[in-house]
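Milestone M4 deliverable, item 7.
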Amino acid sequence: MLKGCPGCPYKDFKYFYDYYGTPDYAHQWIEAAFDGESTKFRNGNADFGKYGFVGRQQVIQKGSAYISVFMYVVREFEGELLH
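Output delivered:
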C-alpha cells in the first residue's frame, strides 16, 4: 500500500505510515506484545513489558482484529476505487 501498486501510496494507509514511521506497524505492535517489549515507532509507542499475560493477550487479540484487519479493509476499499 506504500509503493509498487496502482494508486500507491494509498491515502488512508499513508496517514498511519506517517504517524508510526513504518509500513508494518501492526505487525510490529503484535510482535512487541508477544515478546513483552516496547514498540519503536516514531509516535504512539507502547511498553508491553508492563503488561501481564492477560493484558498482552488482549493487546494481541485487539491488535490483530482492529489494527491489522483495518489495513486490509483500507487496501480493499482503496483498491476498488481504482477499478
